[in-house]
C-alpha cells in the first residue's frame, strides 16, 4: 500500500508497518510521480496549491489524514468515497499556549517595550492586564478546552461559545449578547461556510471599547477591512496568528495598524505538535490497516 507522507519523520514512524510503502511529499517543489497509486495521503502542514487536482489524480485514494485541525483545503474537493480525518488534539497545546502568550503580549504592551528596547529607551508606562478579564472563547472545542486549562490561574472568567450548545457552553446565537461584555474574544472556529466573514463590522461593533480580538482560527473568519477600520480608530486591539490574505503581503494596512500583534500562522508550528502528529499518524494507520474505526473523521456536521 502506498502512503504519501509529509516528512521523513512520518515515513520513519510507519517504517515497520507491513506492506506499507511511504512516498515523502513535503509540498516543496512538484509532487512526486505515482499519485494514482496512493491509497492514503497525509498532506503537508502548508497546503499545496494544486490540492484539488492532486486528489483527483489519486485514483486509489481512500483516506486523507491531515496534520492540521483545519480541513478546509480538502473538504470541498474530497473525491467520493474518500474519508477525511483531521488532527484534532495535535495542536491543542501549541495553539492554546500561543493564545495565552499573544493575549499577554498585547495586554502587557510587550511589542511597544520591544520597540523601545531596540531604541535603547526606558519607556516606563502602566499597561493593561489579563487578570480580572472576561475571556470569550468562540468555537469552544478541544483547543478551547486546552486554552481554558491554561487560563486557570490567571484569575479570568472564561465564557464558552460553540455551534453545539451544551452544559456550560453557549450557542452561537447568543454571541450578540455576550460580545459587549467580553474583554478578550478568542476565535477558534473552523473555516466553514458558516464562519466565513463571521467577524464582520457588526460583530466588531458589538465588542466593547478597548477589547482584544485574538484570531487563532483562520483569516477568512474575519473581515479584514472592518478589522483594520476598528484598529485604525483605536477602539479595538488584535492578536492575529492568521490573516486574510495569508501570507499577509508587504505594505498591507494591517501590518502597521495600531494595536495589532501579528505572527505568521505559527501557533501549532512547534516540536510539541510534531511529536503529537507523529503519534497520531502511527495510531491512525494502525487502525486503518486493522480495518478499525478511525479517529477524527470529518462528518457533515463539522
Ligand atoms: C493549523 O492552523 C491547524 O489547522 O491545525
Which characteristics define this entry?
302 residues, alpha/beta, Rossmann fold, 2 domains, 5-stranded parallel β-sheet, binds glyoxylic acid, D-isomer_DH_NAD-bd, D-isomer_DH_CS, 2-hydroxyacid dehydrogenase, NAD, oxidoreductase
Walk me through the topology.
Blueprint: E1 2-5, H1 8-14, E2 21-24, E3 38-41, H2 51-57, E4 63-65, E5 83-85, H3 92-107, H4 110-118, E6 134-138, H5 142-151, E7 157-162, E8 169-171, H6 175-178, E9 184-187, H7 201-206, E10 212-215, H8 224-232, E11 237-240, E12 260-262, H9 271-290
Parallel strand pairs: 1-2, 1-3, 3-4, 4-5, 6-7, 6-9, 7-8, 9-10, 10-11, 11-12
Helix pairs in contact: 1-9, 3-5
InterPro entries: D-isomer_DH_CS (IPR029753), D-isomer_DH_NAD-bd (IPR006140), NAD(P)-bd_dom_sf (IPR036291)
Organism: Nonomuraea mangrovi
Domain D-isomer specific 2-hydroxyacid dehydrogenase NAD-binding: 101-267
Written overview of the protein:
With 302 residues, the protein is of the alpha/beta class. The chain folds into 2 domains: 2-90 and 270-290, NAD(P)-binding Rossmann-like Domain (Rossmann fold, 3-Layer(aba) Sandwich), CATH 3.40.50; 92-262, NAD(P)-binding Rossmann-like Domain (Rossmann fold), CATH 3.40.50. The protein has helices at 8-14, 51-57, 92-107, 110-118, 142-151, 175-178, 201-206, 224-232, 271-290, and strands spanning 2-5, 21-24, 38-41, 63-65, 83-85, 134-138, 157-162, 169-171, 184-187, 212-215, 237-240, 260-262. Strand 10 (212-215), helix 8 and strand 11 form a beta-alpha-beta unit. The longest helix is centred in the last third of the chain and has 20 residues, at 271-290. The structure holds glyoxylic acid. Glyoxylic acid is lined by residues 68-70, 91, 268.
Amino acid at each position: 500500500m502506498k502512503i504519501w507522507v509529509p516528512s521523513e519523520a512520518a515515513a520513519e514512524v510507519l517504517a515497520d508497518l507491513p506492506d506499507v510503502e511511504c512516498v515523502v511529499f513535503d509540498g516543496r517543489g512538484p509532487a512526486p510521480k505515482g499519485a494514482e497509486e496512493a491509497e492514503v495521503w497525509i498532506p503537508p502542514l502548508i497546503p499545496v496549491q494544486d490540492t484539488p487536482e492532486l486528489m483527483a489524480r489519486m485514483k486509489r485514494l481512500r483516506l486523507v489524514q491531515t496534520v492540521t485541525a483545519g480541513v478546509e483545503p480538502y473538504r470541498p474537493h474530497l473525491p467520493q468515497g474518500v474519508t477525511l480525518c483531521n488532527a484534532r488534539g495535535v495542536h491543542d497545546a501549541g495553539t492554546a499556549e500561543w493564545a495565552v502568550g499573544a493575549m499577554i503580549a498585547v495586554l502587557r504592551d510587550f511589542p511597544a517595550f520591544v520597540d523601545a528596547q531596540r531604541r535603547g529607551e526606558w519607556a516606563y508606562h502602566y499597561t493593561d492586564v489579563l487578570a480580572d478579564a472576561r475571556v470569550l472563547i468562540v468555537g469552544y472545542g478541544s483547543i478551547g478546552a486546552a486554552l481554558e486549562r491554561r487560563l486557570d490561574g490567571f484569575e479570568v472568567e472564561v465564557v464558552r461559545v460553540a455551534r453545539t450548545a451544551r452544559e456550560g457552553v453557549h450557542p452561537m446565537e447568543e454571541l450578540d449578547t455576550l460580545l459587549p461584555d467580553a474583554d478578550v474574544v478568542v476565535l477558534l472556529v473552523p473555516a466553514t461556510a458558516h464562519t466565513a466573514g463571521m467577524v464582520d463590522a457588526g460583530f466588531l461593533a458589538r465588542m466593547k471599547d478597548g477589547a482584544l480580538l485574538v484570531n487563532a482560527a483562520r483569516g477568512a473568519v474575519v473581515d479584514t477591512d472592518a478589522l483594520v477600520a476598528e484598529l485604525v480608530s483605536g477602539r479595538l486591539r488584535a492578536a492575529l496568528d492568521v490573516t486574510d490574505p495569508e501570507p499577509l503581503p508587504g505594505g498591507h494596512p494591517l501590518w502597521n495598524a495600531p494595536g495589532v500583534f501579528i505572527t505568521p500562522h505559527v501557533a501549532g508550528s512547534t516540536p510539541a505538535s510534531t511529536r503529537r502528529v507523529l503519534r497520531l499518524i502511527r495510531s491512525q494507520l494502525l487502525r486503518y490497516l486493522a480495518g478499525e474505526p478511525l479517529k477524527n473523521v470529518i462528518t457533515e456536521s463539522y
